[in-house]
From TrEMBL:
GO biological-process terms attached to the record: proteolysis
Protein name (Swiss-Prot/TrEMBL): Putative Ulp1 protease family catalytic domain-containing protein
InterPro entries, A to Z: Papain-like_cys_pep_sf (IPR038765), Peptidase_C48_C (IPR003653)
Similarity-based family: Belongs to the peptidase C48 family.
Gene3D superfamilies associated with the record: Adenoviral Proteinase, Chain A (3.40.395.10)
Annotated organism of origin: Rosa chinensis (China rose)
Amino acid sequence: MRNAQTIICEFDEKIFGHPSKTFICKHDINNFVTMKEVSGSCIGIYIRYLYCVLKKTKMVDMVGFMDNTDVGAIGCGSPIERSRAIADRLKRAKRGQIILVPYNSGCHWMLTVLSPEEDIVYFMDPLKRRLCTGEWKNIVDNGIKIHNAQLKRQGRKTTTWKNCAGIPEQKTDKDCGYYVMRYMKEIVEDKSLDFFTKWERRGKTTYTQEDIDVVRNEWAKFMVKTYM
């Protein structure tokens, strides 16, 4: 690829609840190949791959995704706009479906899993910090409140947040995006969706480079096959 060249990657509305597109440039690919910071575009492409996995296993009604460009801390609108985006995504979700939300706080990737039927949010931070507080938690809570109000459903006064304390912990300050991709892979490939039981208790597990390379190879093969 030339430095100024970009690859346009379009997404069917079934993936994020609305039609979407992203742009992959040489810089995104170079970073991915050399294990530098993962861009939101690269994560979006991997979600497109995981959606194909869900189709093969007939789990598309069980697991859905949210576009990270609708909720990220930078360039995605005000907090209330992002809360409304979450409510809109939940409105388009299947009954009983969980929604995987990769979130970037500005310099760090985390994974939030929404279970609107249970009024529960599962939180996965590769740094294994405690439950998040502040802006992101408020955005998610308000999005769920808006969704419940639209359905005229009486939800809990406070949505329950559960910390997945046993997730593998990132090793360097560049790993968070790769770890979030691997978390999503393990959730999607588990037909019982028993991820919280697996990751509920704090442990010392981490991913090997081989574990991360599985994700990177899947991304590369799908990218070449689908878009290049």
